[in-house]
Amino acid sequence: MSYSGRSVAGAALAISVFAAPTARVSANPLTICDIQYTTNSDGSSDYHNQVVDCAGGIVVGKWDGGAYPRIMLQDPDCPAVLADPNCPQGWGGIQVKDWTWPYGLYDNVEIGDWVVLTNVQVVEKVGGTFLYWDSVWHPEFTKTPGHPVPPLVEVSVSDIPAPIEGPPYEWYVENHDAECYESVRIVVRDVTVNAMNLGQAQDNYSLRNPAQEDCWAADYMNENKVSWEKYHPFVGLDRHFCALAGIFEQYTGGRFDYYQIVTLKTEDLAICGNLDCDTAEVNLDDVPAFVSALTDPEGYQLNYPDCGIQAADLNGDGVLNGGDVQPFVDLLLSLPP
Ligand SMILES: [Ca+2]
Ligand SMILES: [Ca+2]
Ligand SMILES: [Ca+2]
Ligand SMILES: [Ca+2]
Fold first, then answer.
1. CA of 276 to the centre of ligand 3 (A)
2. What is the tally of structural domains in the chain?
3. What CATH number does residue 250 fall under?
4. What is the pTM of this model?
5. What is residue 27's predicted lDDT score, i.e. its pLDDT?
6. Distance, CA 306 to ligand 2 centroid (Å)?
7. Pairing mode, strands 185-198 and 153-154
8. What are the strands, taking DSSP E only, across the chain?
């Protein structure tokens, strides 16, 4: 049985409902923040193993995961309602695993849909709080399309510190203060790759900021990466990024416990001035793309769908405007002839 063809996406205010006859609507569905917020020292959710209804959030990412697809949901409002003074923008992200063929959830939602979930199981798995869309619980969802994707949450590298290597090939974070960003789309700025081949699968890399603080990243969910390669081609030792964005994850096991930014596509790896994204190189070919990003961001995104305008933020203030022109010119002038 397939859900395809039952979607009514495209109609104004379209709401498609995939409801079983036993539909149950909770009067008080939990927000993503209700599920994620915790004061447990290991960062685990208080709802572990419970079957819940979730008020949901906006789809900000999808990963097919081979036969194990996931969607990433973010609720831009619940962090403000929760108002955790230690992490005012945190707790609002969660990933949903839809591992049941024919992937009725994964195949029927798109980036920008607000998805509400009924009868999903909260599961703590290798450090992450996940919602499992499992037919055992007769899950259902509704969606409303066309929501703007929430802006990337700005995070300081010092807020998501790299783990410390104990005995060789063991890595542990000092604390779980970064837990609030789990499964949120975050961005760090002005970082340089200073180590590679780290972590459980030797596929992590370390990013260092000018204050000599480190955090970790990985590319295993990056759709623009060759599947059998460990890294996106833009990642290499000493590579500098104006901005690096991704879904934030905790990963735990017997000999490790660390957090990592997981990039999802090429645009998450913003090399300063590399506005055409064809290779990692910055050259005169990037000039028209830079002008387009500056003057017509929507047109730029259409012409360079894999790239992101973050790469035009040459002065690193998080804003794209005339202040970035001179640094771009200086960058071009500094290139070898
Ligand atoms: Ca966690
Ligand atoms: Ca969590
Ligand atoms: Ca280029
Ligand atoms: Ca700027």
1. 5
2. 3
3. 2.40.50
4. 0.90
5. 60
6. 29
7. parallel
8. 16-17, 51-63, 70-74, 93-97, 114-125, 128-132, 140-144, 153-154, 164-165, 171-172, 185-198, 204-208, 214-218, 240-253, 256-262, 269-270
